[in-house]
Amino acid sequence: MNSSKKYYITGIKWLGRYVGPYQTIILLSILTGLVSGLSAIVLKTLLHYIERNAVKFFPSYLLFLTPLAGILIVTLLHKRVFKASKQFHGVGDIVQAISKKSALLHFSLTYAKLITSAITVGFGGSSGLESPIVVTGSAIGSNIARFFRLDINYRILFIGCGAASGIAAIFNAPIAGVVFAMEVIMPKLTATYFIPVLLSAAFGSLLAGLFSSESLFTVALTQYETTIEQVPYYILIAVVGGLLSVYFTQMSWSMKTLSKKISNDYLRALIGGSVLGLMVLFFPRLYGEGYTGIYDLFSKTGTDLLPSILQSQTVNMKLILPLTIIILTLLKPIASSLTINSGGDGGQFAPSFITGGYMGYAVYLIAAETVPGFNLPAVVFILLGMASLLSGVMHAPLTGIFLVAEITGGYSLLVPLMLVSAVSFFTKIYFEKRSIHYHKDETHVHQQEHEWATLNHLDLLRLTDDDYHIFHPEQSLAEMLQVVSKSRRNFFPVLDEEKNLLGIITLDDLRPVMFEAEKNSDYKAKDLMHLSGYFIDADDKMLTALEKFDASGQWNLPVLKEGKFTGFISKSTLLDKMRKELGKNDSLF
Questions:
Q1: How many CB atoms lie within 10 A of CB 69?
Q2: CA separation (Å) from 242 to 233, 252, 424, 500?
Q3: Is residue 184 domain-shared with residue 324, that is, in the same domain?
Q4: 434 φ, ψ to 5°?
Q5: Is residue 38 part of a domain?
Q6: Phi, psi torsion values for 470, nearest 5 degrees
Q7: Same-domain status, 106 and 167
């Protein structure tokens, strides 16, 4: 063993011994938050640099071709430099890595997505930065856990920490970051796991704020009072948002299916980038993430969103503007799906946000023209539309609620947000239960991960059978045989007076001596018992218990609580309980 590896192992052992296991987890969660927060700063800085300089290489009349250039550059990087991260795009791949790859994320994901997504969006690709920073943060968390030799449960925890701190840092929204991790990445967190995620999000947000007070998207909202008369408008936004979420999801799947039919990566990039460029030529607000278009709706009349050919014309704004907003609402999902599936990088988080904002403004314009006495502010409709689409497309209603609440700097919209997010989500899953991350032809990994989270919270003590005859180490063979003759069991624990498990005696252990009991009368329990190489801890997760059964090859294992024997648990009982719980989960919706 070389000296560096020796010091590495010594350092890890020192942490566990002198700092303490839980204290070490807390420190590592803070480290994850800081590194993920720093990654968000790097991503925003790199994006702004590319946005300022990419357009210098193109004359103004060819500016619509910059998205194509960005997609071609990213395609080249994926083929030549970042091969390991080429097929890794967002939240769905993270959950799949948790489910199928023991929560191990390739180290290159800690930096590759920062570069490729910044190039894609900086050159005008119509995708978002939120999914890349979630991937980056998750990869940072996974690799920190791996470096410190933590097991799969802690790797999942630190993936959640990284995702939470990434969202917190890029939006300056720590609560939304925590909610996102709990809702999407690692549902049904225990209280013990909640604290590390909370600390990661807090430190990620603090570090990002220290270097830059500018978040990816903010809007100031004056005090807003909700009344019962406004509820029909909220329901309308929610239902339209839910239906639009179905459209968004179907468009994403369709673009993915079409892109797979083009086997050559460069040809796929050329075709997809060219189509995207043409869309940008006629509708410039499809360029980049799209937050600029939403800011235009907040501060202006929306004329900047008109097609280029109409901006210099005298047109009937009452007709053309709503029509333009509706077209943008329908085109944004196509543009973002084209960007990602033709070879660019990024995620659907921001595009769903932007699409929802356009949808909310379209509903506002129509209501303002058709409802007498209508006087609600446009900004409320835009924000509720954003929460609606985020809830439906990403299957994250809580994230939609808290993210919009935090970026507006207050909670005056909390009740409308709750109503809109819930109704939109349930409208979406009524027509399509799968989220955008999981194609109809792919394994429902996300559902499986939710099911595992549920199973992992089962109390193993409730499944433990304590109806056993106990042997004492000094018990004679004759006494043991008397017990065996009355028992239906074929194995027996050997305990001392303090209920410490000393060993196990099975019928196979007794068989060589039991038929000549008088000759072997000197044998005692301590002479015949064998040590149990595996045991289940009462606090083990379901997955850990199954791994121990598989490793031991046994169908029954002893259960210890705080080192004391409590009974045996059988693999068949465990599997039967799992089957019943999964049956309950299948009927949830």
A1: 19
A2: 14, 15, 4, 57
A3: no
A4: -85, 145
A5: yes
A6: -105, 135
A7: yes
Q: What is the mean pLDDT of residues 20-30?
A: 83
| Residue partners of 415: CB distance under 8 A and separation at least 6 | 226
Q: How far is the C-alpha of 298 from the C-alpha of 70, rounded, in Å?
A: 29
Calculate the dihedral angle through the C-alpha atoms of 130, 133, 134, 137, rounding to the nearest 10 degrees: -160
Question: 282 and 207 in one domain?
Answer: no
17, with CB counted inside 10 A (0-12, 13-18, 19+), is: exposed
Residue 216 maps to a domain: no
Residue 22, classified by CB atoms within 10 Å of its CB into exposed (0-12), middle (13-18) or buried (19+), is exposed
Three-state SS at 564: strand
Tens-digit pLDDT profile for residues 348-383? 888 998 999 999 999 998 998 888 878 888 888 999
Same-domain pairing of 69 and 196: yes
How big is the chain by its Cα radius of gyration, in Å? Answer: 29
What pTM was computed for the model?
A: 0.72
pLDDT at 443: 43
Give yes or no: residues 340 and 464 share one domain.
no
d(CA 370, CA 39): 47
Domain containing residue 122: 3-211
pLDDT at 329 over 90: yes
Same domain, 55 and 196: yes
Q: What is the 3-state secondary structure (H, E, C) of 261-328?
A: CCCCHHHHHHHHHHHHHHHHHHCHHHCCCCHHHHHHHHHCCCHHHCCHHHCCCCCCHHHHHHHHHHHH
- 20 and 105 in a single domain? The answer is yes
Q: Give dist(CA 426, CA 435) in Å, integer.
A: 12
The token duo for 88 is: 């890794």
The span from the CA of 476 to the CA of 107, in Å, is 59
What would the two tokens of residue 507 be? Answer: 């019928």
What is the residue whose two structure tokens read 């006494």? Answer: 479
Is 155 within the bounds of a domain? yes
383 burial type by CB count under 10 A (0-12 exposed, 13-18 middle, 19+ buried): buried
Last residue of a domain, one of 211, 241, 270: 211
> Dmax of the chain from CA atoms?
112
Q: Write the DSSP symbol of residue 81.
A: T
What CATH number does the domain containing 9 carry?
Answer: 1.10.3080.10
Residue 87 counted as domain residue: yes
Token couple for 576? 């039967």
Q: How far apart are CA 551 and CA 574, in angstroms?
A: 15
**Tell me, what amino acid is at 540?**
D
Overall number of domains in the chain: 3
Q: What SS3 class is residue 136?
A: helix
Question: Which pLDDT score, from 0 to 100, does residue 587 have?
Answer: 37
Look at strands 564-570 and 501-506 and give their pairing: unpaired
User: Where does a domain end: 410, 441, 472?
Assistant: 441
- Assess whether 262 and 397 both reside in one domain: yes
Q: CB of 70 within 8 A of CB of 119?
A: yes
Residues in the chain: 589
